From TrEMBL:
<dbReference type="Pfam" id="PF02014">
    <property type="entry name" value="Reeler"/>
</dbReference>
<feature type="transmembrane region" description="Helical">
    <location>
        <begin position="225"/>
        <end position="245"/>
    </location>
</feature>
<comment type="similarity">
    <text>Belongs to the insect defense protein family.</text>
</comment>
<keyword id="KW-0732">Signal</keyword>
<feature type="transmembrane region" description="Helical">
    <location>
        <begin position="370"/>
        <end position="401"/>
    </location>
</feature>
<keyword id="KW-1133">Transmembrane helix</keyword>
<dbReference type="GO" id="GO:0016020">
    <property type="term" value="C:membrane"/>
</dbReference>
<protein>
    <recommendedName>
        <fullName>Reelin domain-containing protein</fullName>
    </recommendedName>
</protein>
<keyword id="KW-0812">Transmembrane</keyword>
<keyword id="KW-0044">Antibiotic</keyword>
<feature type="domain" description="Reelin">
    <location>
        <begin position="23"/>
        <end position="195"/>
    </location>
</feature>
<dbReference type="InterPro" id="IPR051237">
    <property type="entry name" value="Ferric-chelate_Red/DefProt"/>
</dbReference>
<dbReference type="GO" id="GO:0045087">
    <property type="term" value="P:innate immune response"/>
</dbReference>
<keyword id="KW-0964">Secreted</keyword>
<feature type="transmembrane region" description="Helical">
    <location>
        <begin position="189"/>
        <end position="213"/>
    </location>
</feature>
<dbReference type="InterPro" id="IPR042307">
    <property type="entry name" value="Reeler_sf"/>
</dbReference>
<dbReference type="InterPro" id="IPR002861">
    <property type="entry name" value="Reeler_dom"/>
</dbReference>
Length: 402
């Protein structure tokens, strides 16, 4: 009787120990914390005899996909089921393609904190991610950012677990880095040249009117048309370069398209050749000015984004001199826009309160010298023109030199 009782207690304690061991293993598996697996990415699961389970040798029913993103922006990585299978656990890392057995690189960003948690492998924070709970999943997404100082090819490597005994490891997805700088840099420089042309075509009509004392209308129109054509000749190649360099980065392409649209809108109105005596003349002039100003703003935005994209002149962005120059250039452009607005409002005063195109007023202006207001306007126009050229040269030098 006593031996039977002892055997019962012994079996009971054995079952308790086995149960505790199983609970510990399941718990360690469910919360996703297994730093000892940073290199191998294999779960440490053993059976009752202490023998580790082996990974499946069949084709995994799960896969890794991703949404491409512009250079320097987070990539969205998806872990998903190919069929009806579901996974309860996973571990995901990114490694350099040239050193796939090396340490994890980059940083992950959790999109669903209820299902995923970040891990730190080899003292690098957030360079791996795993499940937080052992709930069944068919699709899961995380964001990943590459090391900013590098533009290399990467391999996403994942381990998928269906349960404690069944798992697949070394499920890889290669992501090749897009070489975007070779074509985007000249595209940005072309837009810098375009910004100078936009400023010139905005200043030139008033400047010519003051210097020549009221040129004939068709001569002034020819100057405007030539300026618009030159802008288009610069913008269209820039659009082609941006499209081929990084077709996924639609921001550059969209901004250039808007700039081209306003340039052609201005060209269309100029080609209408509205006579000075026509009641729509003043409205058309205001529309042309507005198109030029909007054109200038979008061009400056493209250049600013280009400088931020290719800036390598400082460890920190606030230490980079091209960024500082570009900020000053943006302020300069804002002052230029204000000047265009003020000069448009006081155009009649600057030109002596007369309308362009009247033969009588033209003869009168020929006899008059430039007024003080006219001299000031010419001086300001020259200052803005020289300033635009200096900033354009400095920003272009910063893009290619850094």
């Amino acid at each position: 009787m006593v031996p039977d009782l002892g055997n019962k207690y012994l079996k009971m304690w054995l079952w308790i120990v086995i149960s505790l061991e199983t609970i510990t293993k399941v718990h360690g598996y469910s919360n996703g914390r297994f730093p000892e697996s940073c290199d191998s990415m294999s779960p440490v699961h053993t059976n009752r005899n202490g023998i580790s389970y082996e990974p499946q040798s069949t084709d995994p029913p799960f896969e890794i996909t991703y949404d491409p993103a512009p250079h320097g922006q987070p990539i969205t990585v998806y872990l998903k089921s190919k069929q009806s299978n579901k996974f309860t656990g996973f571990m995901l890392e990114a490694r350099k393609m040239e050193d796939v057995v090396g340490p994890a690189v980059g940083k992950f960003i959790v999109l669903d904190s209820r299902e995923t948690r970040l891990l730190s492998c080899h003292s690098s924070p957030d360079n791996a991610v795993s499940q937080k709970l052992s709930s069944e999943k068919r699709l899961l997404a995380v964001n990943w950012t590459s090391p900013q100082e590098e533009n290399l090819d990467y391999t996403f490597r994942a381990t998928f677990l269906q349960n404690v005994e069944t798992f697949w490891e070394a499920v890889d997805l290669d992501v090749k880095a897009r070489n975007v700088t070779k074509l985007q840099e000249p595209g940005t420089v072309l837009m810098i040249a375009d910004s100078v042309l936009v400023a010139v075509k905005t200043e030139l009509p008033l400047l010519i009117t003051l210097l020549i004392n009221g040129p004939r209308l068709h001569h002034l129109n020819k100057v405007k048309i030539l300026s618009c054509v030159l802008c288009a000749a610069v913008e269209i190649p820039a659009l082609v370069l941006f499209s081929f360099a990084d077709p996924i980065n639609v921001l550059f392409i969209a901004l250039v398209c808007v700039a081209i649209a306003f340039n052609f809108m201005e060209l269309f109105i100029v080609c209408l050749r509205i006579e000075p005596s026509h009641e729509l003349k003043e409205i058309s002039e205001l529309i042309i000015k507005a198109c030029s100003v909007i054109h200038c703003i979008f061009t400056t935005a493209i250049i600013f984004l280009g400088v931020l994209e290719f800036d390598n002149c400082g460890k920190e962005r606030e230490d980079s001199w091209p960024v500082k120059v570009m900020m000053a250039y943006t302020v300069w452009t804002l002052l230029f826009v204000i000047w265009v607005y003020v000069s448009s409002i006081h155009r009649k005063t600057i030109l002596g309160g007369s309308k362009i195109g009247s033969s009588k007023n033209r003869k009168e202006r020929k006899k008059k010298k430039l007024s003080a207001a006219g001299v000031i306007v010419i001086a300001v126009q020259v200052i803005f023109g020289v300033g635009n050229l200096c900033f354009a040269f400095a920003v272009s030098f910063g893009i290619f030199w850094c």
